[in-house]
Amino acid sequence: MEHFNFDIAIVGGGHAGFEAAYCASQFKNLSVAIITMPEVGIASAPCNPAVGGVGKGQVVREIDHLGGIMGKLADLAGIQFRTLNESKGYAVHSTRVQIDKELYSKNAEGLANSIENLTIIRSKVIKTIKTEENFEVKTEECLVKAKKVIFTVGTFLNGKLHYGLESKEGGRHETRKAEGLDSIFDAISVNPKRFKTGTPPRLNVDTIDFREMEVQPSDPTVESMHVLHGTFERFVEQKNCYLTYTNVESMAVIRDNKDKSPMFNGNIKATGARYCPSIEDKAYRYPDKNIHHVFVEPEGLDLKTMYPSGISTSLPVDVQKKMVNSIAGLEQAEILVPGYAVEYDVVDTTQLDLTLQLTNLPGLYFAGQVNGTSGYEEAAGQGMIAGYNAALSLLGRNPLILSRNDSYIGVMIEDLVSNLRDEPYRLFTARSENRLYIREDNTALRMAKYRRSLGLSDQIDEYLESFSLSYDCYMDLFQKTLIDTREMFYVEQNIKFDKKVTLIEILKLSHINPIEFLARYFDYNSIQVDQRLVKCLAISVKYSGYIAKSDEINQKTYKLDSKPIEWAKLVESENISFECKQRITAIKPTTFGQLRRIEGIRQATLSAVAGQYY
Amino acid sequence: MNDDTIIACSSGNSANVAISIIRISGKDFLDKIKPFIPVERIKLETRKAYFTKLYDKDETVVDEVVVVFFKGPNSYNGEDILEISCHGNKLNVQKIISIFIDNCGFKLANPGEFTERALRNGKMNISQVEGLDLLLNANNIFSLKQGYSLLSGELQEDFLKLQQAYMNHKSAIELGFDFLEDIGEEGFNENFKSTLNELKILVDKLYKRASLSTTGLIEPEIVLFGPPNAGKSTLFNQILGSDRAIVSPQAGTTRDYISEAISIKNNAFKLIDTAGIRFSEDSIESQGIELSKRFAQKAFFKVLLVDTSADFNFDSFKDFKYDLCLLTHSTEAYDGTNKGFNQLLKYFGPIEPSEIAPIGPELKGGPIEPNESAPIGPELKSGPIEPNESAPIGPIYYVDLLAHDIGDFILDMVIKKYDSVLDFDPILIQRHSTKVNEIYLNLKNYLHTVRDINDLAIISSEFNSVGNCISELIGIVSPDDILGNIFNSFCIGK
């Protein structure tokens, strides 16, 4: 059996694993390896063919600005760009890129092979043990010794697939499962709950009648994901997505076959995400609602498969077909790959610290779906944190910990480690207390200090420094320059002040679109400014008052968060409900903030606890 | 925070009484008191009453007492508590307390300290402590009732419902960001509106209850206003049924205010005779004017007396609304020569006193009814209860105070108003009504934001101010300040 030695070994080559490897390997004197199942591609997209989305777009940009790879790969394989929540305010604008998933994975593979200090080992892991100095990862073919190990094993742990009444073992469609964590690595506590996720059937593009559907073209005004790409640069041909709807008949098919649904006949015991419901969930939980959105998305430029987003299902294939064919435009649609559900083990993330390292077994990290999250972006964000921190720890440097006050990644990781999840975790903008500040447009400002702390030097570092510097200069200029609005340029735009004002006051006017105005202003004054910077400046000014107010409220609201609590005493108290006590016992919160963030904690409990401070 | 064992007389020791209760609270103090109360001999068990002798250090018997022991955490404040019922002579109580302080190292409890510990040990929440405060210091049936309602957590339930409605609307907003593709624009709008409406209804309801003056209700004041010599002191005495105020025919006799506590149907009221309001060089008198204005701001029931036979400066009176106006010194129909009274008519509008007749005690039940819609409408800031807004003055009567004693008549009007106000279930705790007002104002601002700003992210952020106030109301935020307030005004446990 072959033996290898690495500084960092990553088990799993999905979005978390590859991001971890890419980040760690930026420290050129470290040797990094990805150990992955032979039949699974690097950074493959087994579910929806898209990167980004609400809250997730922000994560991709955070990864990108910290030197990660996801944004770049998304651009290179991006076949459609959209801004979600466009009508809901700048703070919640989120970019989503439909990707050619084959191209995405191919690019990732190519890149992985081009990195000198990164090795890819294709072999199934059987066992991992901790020796005195190292970890030893035993695969079917070889033995890998590593100082740090990162587990990014996705949905493969004890994976079980459900296609209607049939079920079989596997990590995803047509791939093997991994053994349970207890057999791979004992003494690691798994979450007592198994999680479940699902995916819709893939349809043959040639059998779909798109004339019946609303067309959603790619938006050329959406900025590319990777900051060093041209602002609106596209690398491949752009494709449309389509929108159609379920109807009474489609829902009747599902309702009539409830006994064949593994989620409702008892075959699946694991918990799925409430917010990512299958079409069965929608049918049974909302019996009055028959019209649901179905977005039909291309999976690639040359791929025959279309992804119908919104009808994830684990019903038997014949029922799936009947349901699909009842939908306008899909009457003749052929199913190429059936929809299915997968049940898998997840680790107990409360055992991890903020670098995603196992508290009682330093050197072992967990990232991605194995931590109970959903989504490629959440996985990549964790992969990056685990990857950088494994490297920093080896080098004896300070860890990289993102604050929840200035990043969605920080929000996610703190949420994960301070809470035993009882359903898959998805990032929402609502999870952030600082939503007005954590935006896509100011990612460079937010990430600059973190990237700087890594002490790496690359193109991205130059970009961040120059962006921050320019931002400060222009802000200073805005505050100091007084403008006489009697000039034609302002009069034409219906801007009228009695006295001289600063640009800040003009940008805050409610009838002014700050981005368009600022672009015109720079034009008018013949100043050349990067479009990303214009947007960031304009929105920052526009929001500044609201952010200040929100900070003030937050300070009041979260004033108690740092106060210590004694959870053991709390559990003895008679004033707290049984359910709250259970959750408190599981999490063992040490501060009021942690207690407050435990899901399902009642206001009455918080109120009782708050009463104890004086 | 300290873990000292504390001791105090809990039943009030201001006078000699039959029985007083001394309470000891702390951890594992039974060993220390063994020399004084033979806990082993009587085999002291929790929650049982024992008759025993209480000894001094030199083993002489001090008193015969009944003791009850409550083993923590199943006690009032979660600590071990021993209650000693002794003979209630003040000296006796002091003697017993000093025995424990001198020999066992116990500390005399600070005001409210027993309850403070209950709070610390999670036995009570803040609003329960507030309720206890109200209950113990109530001087009317209603305060007692609300005190108990708080103590038992009923009012807190109402507040928690408000919190739930807040969460529902907050969720509706969040749906618009994170799940728009699932619910669609229309579903979002529908949900947004209906949850906002539910919240609005709850806030309006609480706001009405909170807008009733709290100070005005906990110790309601009946205040007599009017120019000098209008007959305020005479009426004061009639209501009081004694000759408390100095009555003389010379204007300006009552320079300072005079107040008396009175009880109507077991409810405590304060009757106040103000100084005559008029412009004067006399500094004492102008102080009186200021004072009476201040009274007007928090008065529960205001009576304006006007001497129709003498001119007066109406400007001093026009800023307030009165529950009742009495025209004194003339039983004749008004002849139109009194300038001040003309002004009054002008100001209050046409008050053709067609039914005006000399009234006597037989004419009971004046026409005033606090109108439900007017005085507590959402536009009003929190303040005293006013008569119907459309009529800035209550009923007007001619009355010859020298011929008729109308004391009972007035008391009847007062109690009617009081009862009708209590039907609204007003919120008495100042902190609660202040917070409810804040919630109301924040919600109002929020409604403007929703109307004016086309940015849901900002709308959501603005909505947080509402949530923040609600959190404060139910005691999640800044309890430091709340508790500071409570324990400053506390007077129990001692």
Describe this structure in words.
By secondary structure, chain A is α+β, with helices and mostly antiparallel strands. Chain A has 20 helices and 22 strands. In chain A, 34% of the residues lie in helices and 17% in strands. In chain A, the strands form 5 sheets. In chain A, strands 1, 2, 6, 7, 8, 9 and 20 form a 7-stranded mixed beta sheet that branches. In chain A, strand 8 and strand 9 form a beta hairpin. The model of chain A has no long low-confidence stretch (mean pLDDT 90). Chain B is 44% helix and 15% strand. The longest helix of chain B has 32 residues, at 180-211. With 494 residues, chain B is of the alpha/beta class. In chain B, helix 4 packs parallel to helix 15 and helix 7 crosses helix 13. Chain B has 15 helices and 12 strands. Chain B has helices at 30-33, 90-104, 113-120, 126-137, 141-151, 154-178, 180-211, 214-218, 232-240, 283-298, 339-348, 407-422, 430-452, 456-473, 479-489, and strands at 6-9, 19-26, 49-55, 61-70, 80-87, 107-108, 221-225, 258-264, 267-273, 301-307, 324-328, 396-398. Classes of the chains: A alpha+beta (614), B alpha/beta (494). The interface between A and B is large, with 48 and 50 residues.
- Series of H and E elements of chain B: EEHEEEHEHHHHHHEHEEHEEHEHHHH
Most extensive chain-chain interface: A-B, 48 and 50 residues
Which percent range describes the beta-strand content of chain A? 15-25%
Broad shape of chain A: globular
Query: Can you count the beta strands of chain A?
Result: 22
Q: How would you describe the shape of chain B? A: flat
Give the termini distance of chain B in whole angstroms.
Answer: 19 Å
Radius of gyration of chain B: 29 Å
What count of helical segments of chain A does DSSP give? 20
Helices of chain B, by number, come to 15
Can you give the helix content of chain B as a percent range?
A: 40-55%
Largest sheet of chain B: 6 strands, mixed
Q: Roughly how many Å is the radius of gyration of chain A?
A: 25 Å
Mean pLDDT, all residues of chain B: 75
Structural class of chain B: alpha/beta
Task: Kindly state the percentage of residues in helix of chain A.
Answer: 25-40%
Biggest β-sheet description of chain A: 7 strands, mixed
User: Strands across the major sheet of chain B, in which order?
Assistant: 3-4-5-2-1-6
Low-confidence parts of chain B, pLDDT < 50 over ≥5 residues? 353-391, 477-494
Q: What is the arithmetic mean of pLDDT of chain A?
A: 90
